[in-house]
Design brief:
The protein is α/β, with parallel strands linked by helices. It has helices at 5-8, 21-33, 50-62, 76-83, 100-110, 132-143, 163-166, 179-192, 199-209, 213-226, 232-239, 245-255, 259-271, 276-295, 307-318, 322-339, 345-357, 365-380, 438-448, 450-455, 477-480, 484-498, 519-528; strands at residues 39-43, 89-93, 120-125, 149-155, 170-173, 196-197, 229-230, 433-434, 460-464, 467-471, 503-506. The strands form three sheets. A five-stranded parallel beta sheet has the order 2-3-4-1-5, covered by helices on one side. Helix 6 links the parallel strand 3 (120-125) and strand 4 (149-155). The longest helix has 20 residues, at 276-295. It starts with a helix and ends with a helix.
Length: 530
């Protein structure tokens, strides 16, 4: 009967375990000097050798002729444990035996001495799946087991274990195995299995495995079933890396701000039964790769892809900015969260695509910084900056007054009711005039934004040119005014009272020393200093 590679090549001694020398050397020394603990806890990601080391430790502790702390694999006990004729080493799957009754049975069975070995060893895999009652039932036995009983607990999610369990075990953390060590192991196995594998293909498998040697051997097994000679193309086909051209097409059109084509591609993928959550996840990983290229000197060490795809990633990285990439990742992460509860996943994904293509409609900070960077680059190049069509009320940059600290960028307001006739007169840009209708504005805010009204108690306002400056001693106000919904509520209320559109700012006395990190204020300051 054919045995898959990861089972056939499971290590039989500590020396055979790859990439966990800091653990295997300690365990072998403990066996050699006869100081085997009563309870161990092995933690780490999948495929890193936790169960393998547990089996080797159980066998070494019972071996009749251990060699430097390793089992000899030749004595009757070692052979009996390997072929299953000796049942003194018990493996328990906590996912399916997680109740109190299961642990009670284990406690009763632990009282009996082993039949053929020195120790009865219980290997409890995925121990974090035990219920709270089962953990409590295990505590006393785990702390003071009979002298002939050893416990080895293994888990991938150690944070789910109670502190009472952690404190009773000797803990070992298994690291992800490096791609270089996985590659060397794959080549070693391939030579003995008469599988021809290229070095580049072995390294690609190692990177795809993400530190899990078991996954790497499974991929090699799959590749050998496709072709007797394993190349990077075979690995790409077996691992599902091929056929991702639609991701590059989507990102190319997003970089060109072409929502029509992006929506057409999403429609085609939807008709081809592509899951929208999976598409969103793939786009996040795609932008992550672009981010790595733009920030790391040797990105091929951190990106799992073929050399051809790496060149395509580099080309796309040249056509976008880092702020744009981070903004896209942020928007996609929000979309991934919303997709889990959305009634129409396609619509949610389409909304996300439009935000990616039209940064102006996104309130994300990264998108705002990206837009500012584009404006700065345009100014440095000496080109004229034209106002976007979606914001007809936005003033030309050259018409902006001296920057006022902590002012916010004006947004498009919804159509207000007919303006009243008592609108304030124009004021000089250098003179502060008290805004007498501020109480009427607060009355409207009391209806539309009650939390903000509470913050604005005992506040006042001044007019300086086309700016409305709010004077408020409450230190929380500066945080509220930076939130789009609160700032917009003030502007709408002012517009409904006066019939005029004012830019919003915070009034500072002449001796004020407060500074702001607002990106728009910094931009205006740079423009005025040109």
């Amino acid at each position: 009967m054919y045995r898959v590679l990861y089972r056939k090549w499971r290590p039989q001694t500590f020396a055979d375990v790859v990439g966990q020398e800091h653990i295997t050397s300690t365990l072998a020394h403990e066996v050699e000097i006869g100081k085997v603990s009563h309870a161990y806890l092995f933690t780490g990601s999948r495929g890193t050798g936790k169960t393998t080391c547990a089996k080797i430790l159980a066998k070494a502790a019972n071996c009749l002729n251990p060699v430097d702390g390793n089992p000899c694999n030749e004595c009757a006990v070692c052979k009996g444990l390997d072929d299953g004729t000796i049942l003194d080493v018990i493996e328990i799957d906590a996912a399916s035996n997680n109740g109190v009754d299961n642990i009670r049975d284990l406690r009763e069975e632990a009282n009996y001495t082993p039949v053929h070995t020195k120790y009865r060893v219980y290997i409890i895999d995925e121990v974090h799946m035990l219920s709270i009652g089962a953990f409590n039932a295990l505590l006393k036995t785990l702390e003071e087991p009979p002298p002939h009983v050893k416990f080895i607990l293994a888990t991938t999610e150690v944070h789910k274990l109670p502190a009472t369990i952690l404190s009773r075990c000797q803990r070992f953390d298994f690291h992800r195995i490096t791609p270089e060590k996985i590659k060397a192991r794959l080549i070693h196995v391939a030579e003995r299995e008469n599988i021809s594998v290229d070095d580049d293909a072995a390294l690609l498998i190692a990177r795809i495995a993400d530190g899990a040697l078991r996954d790497a051997l499974s991929i090699l097994d799959r590749c050998s079933g496709i072709s007797a000679h394993v190349t990077t193309d075979v690995v790409s086909s077996a691992a599902g890396l091929a056929g991702k051209d639609y991701l590059f097409d989507l990102v190319d059109n997003i970089n060109m701000n072409n929502p029509s084509e992006v929506l057409s591609l999403i429609s085609k993928l939807h008709n081809d039964s592509c899951d929208m959550e999976r598409l969103c996840s793939e786009l996040i990983n795609h932008y992550r790769n672009i981010m790595i290229i733009k920030t790391v000197k040797n990105p091929q060490q951190l990106i799992v892809c073929t050399d051809i795809d790496l060149e395509l990633y580099k080309k796309q990285a040249e056509n976008t900015t880092l702020f744009k990439v981070i903004s896209c990742i942020t928007i996609l992460e929000e979309c991934a969260t919303l997709l889990k509860s959305s009634t129409s996943k396609r619509t949610q994904m389409e909304m996300c695509a439009v935000k990616l293509c039209i940064p102006d409609i996104s309130g994300d900070t990264s998108a705002l910084i990206d837009r500012i960077e584009k404006i700065e680059n345009t100014i440095r190049s000496g080109k004229i900056v034209s106002a976007p069509e979606t914001k007809p009320e936005k003033q030309e940059i050259k018409e902006e007054p001296k920057p006022i600290e902590e002012k916010k960028e004006e947004e498009t307001l919804p159509p207000p009711p007919p303006p009243p006739t008592n609108a304030p007169e124009e004021t000089s840009a250098d003179v502060d005039t008290i805004f007498t209708a501020w109480s009427d504005v607060l009355a409207k805010l009391d209806v539309t934004d009650k939390p903000l009204t509470g913050i604005l108690g005992n506040s006042s306002a001044y007019i300086r040119g086309d700016f409305l400056l709010v004077k408020c001693d409450n230190p929380v106000f500066s945080q509220f005014i930076r939130q789009d919904n609160h700032a917009k509520a003030i502007r709408i209320a002012v517009y409904e009272v006066t019939g005029r559109k004012y830019r919003l700012g915070i009034y500072k006395s002449e001796d004020g020393n407060a500074k702001t990190n607002d990106p728009l204020a910094d931009l205006v300051s740079k423009i005025n200093n040109l």
